[in-house]
Amino acid sequence: MLTEKGEIAKERMLNLVSFIVEVRKKYEVIFVSSGAAAAGYTALKLDKREHISKKVLAAIGQPILMSSYKKKFDIYDTDIAQILLTEDDFNSRKRTEIFSQIIQTSFKEDIIPIVNENDISSTPDQIFGDNDLLAAKVTHHTDSDLLVILSDIDGYYDSNPDENPHAQMLKEVNSISEDELAAVYRPHNEFTSGGLYTKLVAADFLINKKREMFLCSGFDLSTAYEFLMDGKHTKGTLFRAKN
Fold this sequence. Notes:
Strand order of the largest sheet: 4-8-9-7
Shape: globular
CATH topology of the largest domain: Carbamate kinase
């Protein structure tokens, strides 16, 4: 949600909010967001490589990020709720049940739950490290049918399209090999910690749980809209177990 100049991308955020509001007409939506540390960096230029500095940036950025989202959702008279999670929340049945109840109550009250990792209180062994796996676990533990990842890539290719001009996008993937999971791709932004690798980890997790994941561009939302609202799969990659 940042521009190349390191500022909050207000127009892109508004487009995303408009998209979510439209999709809610057909689906119940849990919005898993990221960008707290990046938002904090717009206010205070700390060293992002230092562990504590990144926590401070997240602490500063959380209210900035949520305030920005609230202003956009207010345009559509839509209420939001923030939910911060750590890995431990999915390792405790009681915590998972509480989280699920909060989600269901949010749906009942017509509120959009916005989930993010609790970067501030997480210890190193509690950190997801990226929001792809967080989103996958939220999908599974809320018994959701589908995870849609809006990314800076428009799908999963049979080879690296940055290196191979003949790379072909895969429309559907039913399994992910160890070789694919072992491949490490650099994230496209200094604030992200995932890249394509963590998206494959998330997809593999959901495939094994018999759930689906759709990977497509977050810059051109028409692909996601057509897939969700019109049932058209023209671009993007669908990950699901083979029937």
